[in-house]
Design a protein that fits this description.
By secondary structure, the chain is an alpha+beta fold. It folds into 2 domains: 10-141, no CATH class; 173-247, no CATH class. It has helices spanning 31-41, 59-69, 95-98, 173-183, 187-199, 236-247, and strands spanning 26-28, 56-58, 83-84, 120-121, 223-226, 229-232. The chain has a two-stranded antiparallel sheet. The protein has a two-stranded antiparallel sheet with strand order 3-4. A two-stranded antiparallel ribbon has the order 5-6. Helix 1 (31-41) crosses helix 2. Residues 125-173 are annotated as: Disordered.
């Protein structure tokens, strides 16, 4: 980034919505704001140690978060806040150098035009992919990365009777089948789940999911047509096969 500073200080803008804040509307970022911000957006309110990010919020954003937390407001104005990154230069990638705030005040600042840059991606509204979250019952229910956590001293491996594998644990075939059964997933949903797990390398070698699409064909031999309907045969083979192939043997 270029050495010269921004035309306007980042602290004249709201960290959440990115809008220009007149002096009387500026608010410090409190612990309450950090917690409720995390509860709503599922993002840590970070970069507060960086000179290129705002260290203030506007009165409106602070109040909207407070009202949502208290159940007096259904939703925030958007589902994803401004995403801040360090600007590459002050000519084409600096949000604070690009916004012209001269002559604007509390009454007319709504007319200010804001750019959408790599260093400052504008808020994204709620949609079916970005649903409105439910407020927590209390601040104690909010566990965010912004909270200080107790760091335990390292433990000597020789004093431990067991070790914990913190790496990912792939699903076996029986575990995947159990999960599909427990969630009551349709064929399409089961296949989608399997595909997503495979993409994340969370399926054990040899674990298959494509057969869910045609799983009803596995059991057609256990049914016989009578008239216009089907009558289920009382077959132990059906029960055994369902147990072994669909639910997994235990």
């Amino acid at each position: 980034m270029a050495q010269r500073g921004c035309v306007i200080s980042p602290d004249n803008f709201c960290f959440i919505c990115g809008e220009y804040i007149v002096k009387s509307q500026q608010r410090n970022i409190s612990d309450f704001v950090k917690k409720v911000y995390f509860a709503y957006f599922k993002l840590k309110l970070g970069d507060q140690d960086k000179p290129w990010a705002p260290h203030k919020v506007c009165r409106r954003c602070e109040e909207d978060l407070r009202l949502w937390f208290k159940g007096k407001k259904n939703s925030f104005r958007f589902g994803i806040p401004v995403m801040w990154r360090e600007q590459q230069n002050h000519t084409t990638d600096c949000y604070f150098c690009s916004v012209d705030v001269k002559g604007f005040n509390t009454k007319n600042k709504k007319k200010i035009s804001y750019p959408n840059l790599n260093s400052a991606i504008r808020p994204v509204p709620h949609s079916s992919e970005i649903p409105v979250p439910l407020p927590p019952s209390s601040l104690d229910d909010i566990q965010s990365d912004s909270e200080d956590r107790t760091i335990l001293p390292p433990q000597d491996e020789s004093s431990s009777d067991f070790s914990v594998d913190e790496g990912p644990q792939p699903f076996s075939q029986s575990e995947l089948n159990d999960l599909v059964r427990d969630l009551g997933l349709s064929k399409d949903a089961a296949e989608l789940l399997g595909s997503r797990l495979k993409n994340k390398n969370l399926l054990s070698p040899g674990t298959s999911f494509s057969w869910y699409r045609h799983r009803e064909k596995e059991f057609t031999q256990f049914f016989s047509k009578e008239g216009n309907g089907r009558k289920r045969k009382r077959s132990m083979g059906l029960l055994q096969r369902r147990s072994a192939q669909v639910f997994g043997e235990h």
